[in-house]
Design brief:
The protein is α+β, with helices and mostly antiparallel strands and about 140 residues long. The protein has one domain: Muramoyl-pentapeptide Carboxypeptidase, domain 2. The protein contains six helices and four strands. A four-stranded antiparallel β-sheet has the order 1-2-4-3. Helix 2 crosses helix 6. The longest helix has 17 residues. It is globular, with a radius of gyration of 16 Å. The relative contact order is 0.17.
Length: about 140
């Protein structure tokens, strides 16, 4: 990786740490949408269709998957989506070291859920991230 690219991302990290949450949401919503559209949206759509459009069943089906796990916390209301590792290329290739970049994942989850069922309103909360030293990336989804 060229030194300039490494340096640029370190500057980016410092800048993103200074941006308020609403601005991060705007910035990373574009990233999250495009990340989801690279292929995972089709996978989630297929699982959702096979779940008869039921989120309890949908999140339950993640138990058989390698790269994502799901948990029903409160049926029909609260769920968790868990990634056993960080799959963000910006992290795995050593470009970023701050979990501010995980706003992209949060936005991706929101985008996927809204695509699957636009009738619901969702809140997604970042609970833990591999980048910040946790053992997994965990997000809580609440239907509001």
């Amino acid at each position: 990786m060229p030194d300039f690219v490494k340096e640029w991302f370190s500057w980016f990290e410092k800048g993103i740490e200074q941006v308020d949450q609403k601005e991060k949401e705007k910035l990373f919503s574009v990233c999250g949408m495009h990340c989801a559209e690279t292929g995972v949206i089709k996978l989630y759509k297929d699982i959702y269709d096979k779940s008869c459009n039921n989120l309890d069943t949908f999140f339950g089906k993640f138990e058989d998957m390698k790269y994502v796990k799901g948990k029903v916390i409160t049926p029909g209301k609260v769920y968790e989506i868990i990634f056993p590792d960080c799959y963000c290329d910006l992290y795995t290739k050593g470009y970023v070291h701050t979990d501010s970049i995980c706003e992209c994942s949060r936005q991706s989850i929101l985008y996927v859920l809204k695509t699957l069922n636009s009738e619901n309103e969702y809140e997604v909360e970042k609970l833990s991230t591999v980048i910040s030293g946790d053992k997994e990336c965990r997000f809580r989804v609440t239907i509001v």
